[in-house]
Design a protein that fits this description.
By secondary structure, the protein is mostly helical. It has one domain. 68% of the residues lie in helices and 0% in strands. The protein is built from four helices and no strands.
Length: 97
């Protein structure tokens, strides 16, 4: 049975989820690269929201420690490529075939 979601409900999710996800983990972690040795700290790096919030933090408060700009941009470009590829494959599977 297909899942049906109203457009208004979907808009509410996209308005409320990113700020909550950003404030929940990404801003609260100290991103000193030399100290990132724990399993949980490494697992957090799989989340693309971490890199977007790190980019925002590096632009707004450059005096505090954060990931390097090259690492942030490289990770965001990698996530973009992965999500674009997955989205195009899903589109081809559902719309073209």
């Amino acid at each position: 049975m297909p899942l049906s979601i109203r457009t208004e409900d979907l808009c509410k999710v996209f308005k409320s989820a990113p700020p909550a996800a950003t404030m929940a983990g990404a801003f609260s972690l100290s991103r000193a690269p030399a100290r990132a040795t724990g399993k949980k700290e490494k697992a957090v790096l799989v989340n693309p929201v971490v890199y977007s919030s790190e980019g925002l933090r590096s632009a707004l408060v450059p005096q505090f420690p954060h990931l390097s700009i090259a690492a942030i941009l490289g990770a965001l470009a990698g996530f973009d490529q992965v999500f674009l590829t997955l989205g195009l494959c899903q589109f081809r599977r559902k719309a073209v075939h």
